[in-house]
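Next comes this protein:
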Amino acid sequence: MGGNLKRTPLFHEHVNHQAKLVDFNQWEMPVQYPTGILREHEIVRTAVGLFDVSHMGRFEVTGPGAVPFVHDLITNDLEKAEPGQLLYAAMCREDGGVLDDVTVYRMADRVMVVANAGNLSRIWDWMETRALAWVGPPVEVNDRSTELAQLAFQGPRAEEVIRPLVAADLNTIGYYRFLVATVAGIKDVVVSRNGYTGEDGFEIYVSSGRSRDLWRALLHAGESIGAAPIGLGARDTLRLEMCYCLYGNELNLDVSPLEGGIGWTVKMKKTDFIGKDALAAQKAAGLTRSIVGFAVEGQRMPRHGQALFVGGREVGIVTSGGFCPSLKQGMGLGFVPPALSAVGTELEVDIRGAKVPARVVERPFYKHASHK
């Protein structure tokens, strides 16, 4: 592996756990551990698993204009959010294309924007440029990506395991809420109830210098129930079962949030935001493509980029696909014309030259997740 890859503060923990490391968006990251992807997937669905997601971007906006500034950048309504609440949103260009799907934390005195690793530089540049042009109350934008590590502790038993470590009442954290507390003796840790697996759990932000201490404390606390580190391979199978979007697959610069399956984050009634006019025009004209979920017959696995057919006519493309371990079936997401998006619609997937029957099904695929 090349020597120019970036490493998170938890890199040596992955080495200690004998992780298989891969190049992921120029980061040297664990794709799986010796237990394997299928077992890691099961651990998260039945107990609790620990992910290192410190490769993501963490940008902080301070100053009296922090809320209106970020509100203008995203499709969701930050001004309606309370301190201690977070939002999922798209950040768009003026033409409605998605720069990234982000998570936004409204704190009492600042706003934190969490971006995908592959878009870290793009979103930082976009926010810096917009801050320079901002004519509202003063703001300051800071990149805290290296100062903070980010962990995801996910699974139906996550709260049970982490509760004794947190010097605060976890009952006060509803879904998409957060608090700042001392965790495992480490001060000023952000504990947020959300994730990318469909299970109950927490995204945790801690100073990079204390991240290894917290990583070890969480695994030790969950040792008796089989808590384990989880790689990016299982992270992808878990999110696919929940039909969560992945940037570069369901979303990109040429796809709007309305098309990409996150139209619910677009609040047209809010004050102006970047891309609003283009999205309103697209909505009025009617979408030409929609995201659907589908199940494949037999043992074949759909993959990103494969063509979708109806009656021998190519009608769309697979955006994400693979084996869903909880369902023991090949399933996928893809773009098709809206007229072909109804549940039950018969499709075919071109898998290595073979037209494999498939059928549009309800989303999410996995319906027994524990998220609150």
The first strand starts at residue 20 and ends at 24. The chain has three domains: 11-54+147-241, 57-143, 288-361. The radius of gyration is 21 Å.
